[in-house]
Amino acid sequence: xxxxxxxxxLAALIKERxxxxxxxxxxxxxxxxxxxxxxxxxxxxxxxxxxxxxNALDTSTDYLSGKTDEVKPEGADDEVQMxxxxxxxxxxxxxxxxxxxxxxxxxxxx
Length: 110
What we know:
Layout: H1 5-16, H2 21-28, H3 32-40, H4 47-56, H5 61-64, H6 76-90, H7 96-106
Helix pairs in contact: 2-3
């Protein structure tokens, strides 16, 4: 995201939500340093980290990454909840290979 969309939207949402970097770090189990890097545009969160930040800021990953201009798309909570339920329901039946593949997808790898 060389255009700075993520860092700009992240900064705006933090301000709108009345949070400090420290508070967002605590809500997302990240370090203040990581949040700082995202705000400066030095790094970009991926996968589950981006989802965690989006959830903490009550928005979507698509909004943060500039794929949509809707801060909170209708039904977004329902979709996330359905994904969590699906994973939780099927995790006991997943092979180690499937679990590794899911982890790679969630954390930005392939």
